[in-house]
Each structure stands twice: as structure tokens, then as C-alpha cells.
Amino acid sequence: MGLLNSLLEHNRSFVDNREYEQFQTDKFPDKNLAVLACMDARLVELLPKAMGLKNGDAKLIKNAGALVTHPWGSVMRSLLVAIYELRAEEVCVVAHRDCGMNSIDPARILNAACQRGVSAETLATLRNAGINLEGWLKGFDNVEDSVRHTVDVIRTHPLMPRDVPVHGLVIHPVTGKLDLIVDGYATLTQAA
User: Fold this and answer.
1) How far, in Å, CA of 87 to CA of 179, rounded?
2) What pLDDT, on the 0 to 100 scale, is given for residue 99?
3) Strands 58-63 and 90-96
4) How far is C-alpha 180 from the geometric centre of its chain's CA atoms?
5) Counting CB atoms within 10 angstroms of each CB, which of 43, 47, 116, 167 has the fewest?
6) DSSP string for residues in 24-40
7) Which residues, 6+ apart, have CB-to-CB distance to 151 below 8 Å?
8) How far is Cα 78 from Cα 186, in angstroms, rounded to an integer?
9) Helices in 40-96 by DSSP H: which ranges?
């Protein structure tokens, strides 16, 4: 029985037993918060609990490293939709210690891609099209600096309202301890 079959079997039981009822809410975040966090598996339950969030409290956007790598990419679009359409009034960027994106080796990823069947010709075509694969796959060297950079990209985006505080935090993936890196309220005060 493959993983998909196992997931679907569980889902049938979940729906039949009406287990979903405990999670019912609407599409608007109760705490008017959008959170950009890392996709690390250790944070699936830990992050919301460490932040005191329950189902329906926040819009949660996850990717590798809690990064905004492009100002016109899907992460930034999701944050803007959360603010303009879904009543989010604050943003928290939450990266974590011991992140896989910390000093990631793009060459190792590209090597693994080749071993899994991506051809050298495909990589050459992408590079000839102007895509810097190594730069695109690069993570960060310092998690605090990465959080500051991502907060700055979000805060200074031309479509981001200037009255939205953008906070930056780093969570410990074992204890859940949050370290404040950027206080979005202080940044708003400085800008005023």
C-alpha cells in the first residue's frame, strides 16, 4: 500500500467520523496575521503552538527557509493577498535554527538532480536562458541576516502598505523558543 493510499484511507475515516468539525473556521484569520515560515517538518505543529496560534488564527505560508527570493514570486503574492483580501494586518517572518537552507550547497542539489535523471543538456539550456541555477538554489549563511533581508524585501515592496508591521523571528526547532530579530512596530515608528 503506497503512501497515497494510506493518506486517502485515513481521510475517508477522518471525514466519516466528522473529525474536521473541531477545525472549522472561515477564511479570515482571527488574529489578522500572516506568517511566512520555513517548511521544516519539525515546525508543523511546534510553530503554531509556540506562537499560541490555533486553526483559523493566521494565514500560514511555508517555503524552504522562510525566504522571499523574488519580489514578484508566489510568496510575496500570497502575503499581499492575505493583506488586501483576507484581512491580515501584520506579517511575521519565522525562520529557524538548524535550517537546511543555511549554507546549502547548490552544486550538491544539481548533482542529485542529474543522478535522478535531469540531463546535463537541460541544465545547459537553463543556464543559456540566463537562469543562474546556483544563485536560485542558494540559501543563506546566517539565519538572522536572512530574516532581516526577507523582512526588508516585504516591508519595502511597492505594493505593501506602509502601515503593516513586518516582524522577524527565529524559532528553535526543538524548544520552540522565539528570538525577536526585527520588531515591526519599531520599524513603523522609525519610518513615521
Assistant:
1) 26
2) 95
3) unpaired
4) 17
5) 116
6) ---SS-TT-EEEEEE--
7) 93, 166, 167, 168, 181, 182, 184
8) 24
9) 43-51, 74-84
**Measured between alpha carbons, how far is 143 from 38 in angstroms, rounded to an integer?**
11
DSSP 3-state assignment of 146? helix
Q: Read off the C-alpha cell for 154.
A: 516585504
What 3-state DSSP class applies to 56? coil
Measured in whole angstroms, how far is the alpha carbon of residue 45 from the centre of its chain?
14
DSSP string covering 84-122, please? HTS---EEEEEEETT-TTBT--HHHHHHHHHHTT--HHH
Instruction: Give 17's DSSP letter.
Output: T
Q: How far is CA 66 from the centre of its chain?
A: 4
Q: How many residues in total does the chain contain?
A: 192
Q: Can you give the three-state secondary structure of 115-135, one letter per residue?
A: HCCCCHHHHHHHHHCCCCHHH
**Confidence class for position 54, pLDDT limits 50, 70, 90:** very high
Q: What is the pTM of this model?
A: 0.90
Bridge partner list, 62: 37
Strands 33-38, 58-63: pairing kind: parallel
